[in-house]
Specification:
- This protein is of the alpha+beta class and about 450 residues long.
- It contains 12 helices and 7 strands.
- A 5-stranded mixed β-sheet has the order 1-2-3-7-6, covered by helices on one side. The protein has a two-stranded antiparallel sheet with strand order 4-5.
- A hairpin with a 2-residue loop joins strand 2 and strand 3.
- Helix 4 crosses helix 5 and helix 5 runs antiparallel to helix 6.
- The two termini are about 65 Å apart.
C-alpha cells in the first residue's frame, strides 16, 4: 500500500526547497550577509506542513470542509515561507514578491495534482518499488514544471502587476485548490471510468498552468513589441536630430568664419577710436568662443558635444576634450548618442551646482588599452556619491533618473561587449565615468 511516511515527506520537502531556489534564481539578488540565514529559516518553516507537528495542518483522505480548511492553512503557510525567502534574497518591490509567491504556489499545486492523478494507477498495480517510483515522479514533475516556467516567463522583467494578471493567477489557484481537494478524497466519492478520470483531471489541472503561462507570454510579447516600437521611434528621432544638428553646425561655422574676417577688416579701418575698438574687440572675443570645433572622428558625437558645450557655456562650464572615436565606427549612432548624451548630461548637472571656488570643467578623454578603447568622462562634484555593486548612488531628488542614465549607458555598451565603471575620489570630490569598448567586437547588426 502506498503511504506517505516521514522519510518520503522530508525528501519531498527537500525537493520543494530545491524548486523554490531554482525558480527564483533568475531574479536580482540581495547581497547583505544576514539574508541567506534568514531566507533558509523561512524555508525551514515548511517543516510544519510536511511533518505531523500541528494536528490541524494534517490532511486526510476525506471530502470534508475541515479537510479543505486544512489545505488552505497549509497553502497559506507555504506562501508565507516563499514570500519570506523572496523578501530576504530578492531585490524587488513587495507587490512583485507577492505575485511571484502566488505563481510558485500555483506551480506547486499543479505538480501535486498531477502526482495525485497517477496515484490510483500506481495503487492498482502496486509492487514494492511503487513508493520510490511515486517519489521519483514527484521530483521529476515539480522540477520539470519549475524549469519550464522559469525558462518561458522572464520574471526579472516584472515591474508592476496589473489587475488582469492578479485575477488570472488568483482564479487559477482557486481552481487548482478545488482539484486538490477532490483528488485527495477516495475514488468512491467520485467514480469515473479510469480513462475519463485521467483525462478530466490531467487536462484540467495542466490546462490551468498552461493558461497562466500563455497569458504571461502574451503580456511580455506585447510589452516587448511596444518597447521595440518606442526604440525605433527614438532611433529615428535621434537620427533626424543628429542630421539637423550637423547641417546647422556647418552653416554656423561658415557664418562665424565669415563674421570673424569681417571684424578683422572693420577693426583695421576704425583707426584710434578707443571706444569703437573696445566694442569690436568685445564682439571678436564673443564670436571667437564659437570658433573651437569638436573633432573626435565621429560626426554625430561632434554635433552632440558642440551642442552641450554651447549650452554649458551659458553656465560658465568649460570642456577639455582629447578624444579619438574613429576606432568605434562600428557603433550605431543611436548607441553613441545614448552613451555620450547621458554621460554629458550627468556631468553638466553635477558641475553646474559647484560652488564658485571649484573648477567648473568637464574632461573628455579616450585611451586605447589592452585591445579596448576607454572613454573617460571626469568632473568634480559636491554632495554625497557612492558606488554599490557598480551602481552609482546619489543624494539627488531625481536619483532614479540619474540611475536610469547610467543603466542606459551600460546597456548600450553591453551591445558591443563593453562595460562601464565609475570611480569616486571622495577627498578631492572627483567623479570619473569610464566606458570600455573592445575594439575587436564588430557590434550588432
Amino acid at each position: 500500500m502506498i503511504e506517505y511516511n516521514n522519510v518520503s515527506n522530508i525528501l519531498t520537502m527537500f525537493v520543494e526547497w530545491l524548486g523554490i531556489i531554482l525558480f527564483f534564481r533568475q531574479l536580482p539578488r540581495k547581497n547583505e550577509d544576514e539574508h541567506p540565514f534568514l531566507a533558509m529559516l523561512c524555508l525551514l518553516l515548511l517543516t510544519f506542513i510536511y511533518l505531523p507537528v500541528i494536528g490541524i495542518l494534517q490532511t486526510s483522505s476525506e471530502y470534508t470542509i475541515a479537510n479543505l480548511i486544512s489545505l488552505l492553512l497549509r497553502t497559506l503557510i507555504n506562501g508565507l515561507c516563499v514570500f519570506g525567502y523572496l523578501y530576504f534574497t530578492v531585490e524587488t518591490v513587495n507587490i512583485a514578491r507577492v505575485y511571484f509567491t502566488l505563481f510558485y504556489i500555483l506551480i506547486y499545486n499543479v505538480s501535486f495534482n498531477i502526482r495525485e492523478i497517477f496515484v490510483p494507477y500506481i495503487r492498482a498495480n502496486y509492487h514494492r518499488y511503487s513508493d520510490w517510483l511515486l517519489l521519483l515522479a514527484i521530483i521529476i514533475i515539480q522540477l520539470t514544471l519549475v524549469l519550464i516556467v522559469r525558462k518561458v516567463i522572464p520574471m526579472k522583467d516584472v515591474r508592476s502587476v496589473s489587475a488582469y494578471r492578479w485575477a488570472v493567477i488568483v482564479v487559477a489557484i482557486i481552481i487548482e485548490m478545488c482539484f486538490k481537494w477532490s483528488l485527495i478524497a477516495p475514488l468512491g466519492h467520485n467514480e469515473y471510468r479510469a480513462i475519463d478520470n485521467f483525462l478530466y483531471n490531467f487536462l484540467g489541472t495542466a490546462g490551468v498552468l498552461l493558461l497562466v503561462v500563455l497569458t504571461e507570454v502574451s503580456f511580455f510579447a506585447r510589452e516587448k513589441q511596444l518597447q521595440m516600437e518606442k526604440s525605433t521611434m527614438l532611433a529615428e528621432y535621434e537620427a533626424q536630430n543628429a542630421k539637423r544638428a550637423i547641417r546647422s553646425d556647418d552653416d554656423i561655422r561658415r557664418m562665424y568664419h565669415d563674421m570673424k574676417n569681417h571684424m578683422i577688416v572693420l577693426r583695421n579701418m576704425i583707426g584710434d577710436e578707443s571706444n569703437a575698438r573696445e566694442y569690436v574687440d568685445g564682439l571678436y572675443e564673443y564670436f571667437g568662443g564659437y570658433e573651437a570645433e569638436v573633432v573626435t572622428g565621429n560626426t554625430v558625437v561632434d554635433s552632440l558635444i558642440s551642442d552641450k558645450m554651447q549650452r554649458a557655456a551659458l553656465k560658465k562650464i568649460t570642456f577639455n576634450i582629447v578624444m579619438d572615436l574613429k576606432p568605434l565606427d562600428f557603433i550605431r549612432p543611436l548607441d553613441m548618442v545614448t552613451m555620450f548624451g547621458n554621460a554629458l548630461d550627468n556631468a553638466v548637472e553635477a558641475v553646474e551646482i559647484l560652488p564658485e571656488d571649484m573648477e567648473k570643467i568637464i574632461y573628455l578623454k579616450t585611451v586605447q588599452y589592452a585591445g579596448m578603447l576607454v572613454i573617460r568622462v571626469s568632473n568634480q562634484f559636491t554632495g554625497e556619491r557612492k558606488v554599490t555593486n557598480g551602481v552609482l548612488k546619489t543624494m539627488k531628488a531625481d536619483a532614479g533618473n540619474h540611475g536610469i542614465g547610467i543603466r542606459s549607458i551600460k546597456t548600450a555598451a553591453a551591445r558591443y561587449g563593453g562595460n562601464v565603471d565609475v570611480e569616486i575620489e571622495k577627498d578631492k570630490h572627483w567623479f570619473r565615468l569610464m566606458i570600455m569598448i573592445p575594439l575587436k567586437i564588430t557590434g550588432e547588426s
